[in-house]
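Quick one:
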Amino acid sequence: PRERAKLPYSEAEIGLFLAAAQALSTPSRRMHASALICLGAGAGVIGSELRHIRGVDVSRRCGGLLVKVSGKRARIVPVLSRFHEPLAAAAAFAGQGLILGGSGPQRKNLTCEITALFKDRALPRLEAGRLRSSWLQQAAKQIGLPTFMAAAGVCCSQRLGDIASQLPPASEQEMVALLGGSS
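Output:
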């Protein structure tokens, strides 16, 4: 079934979430909350994918930061440059462990526990789906997708999927450069 994108967070809201994460009471909470925000808004990782990511799945390569995502949609994802440093710090903190914490990837509702840490009424509710939409919007903007679609007269993403499926896969270097990394 077709997925509907949630409303993305604004750049200012993302900044407030990152600041609120840094104000949490313990280093563990700060790192787990930062990782959730950076993996969602910086790499578009959501849902059960988040539970499986370990600190060692985040690496500096090709002049950027990459996240190895396992599961049904296994892939290597370039991280938007704004999120490199906080995500690298959270990954180093986690090491071999799960980046969002917990004892195992089978643990449910981990993101709910982390989002519950954000109690500031000035902030909107933190949702993994909205973080992913924020990443999708930023990545589309950076690669010039709206301009391309307007110039091509394409208004349906299904057509883009059909076209993209006929192209060779992008290299790691191309993906990193696309979202702000440098070779």
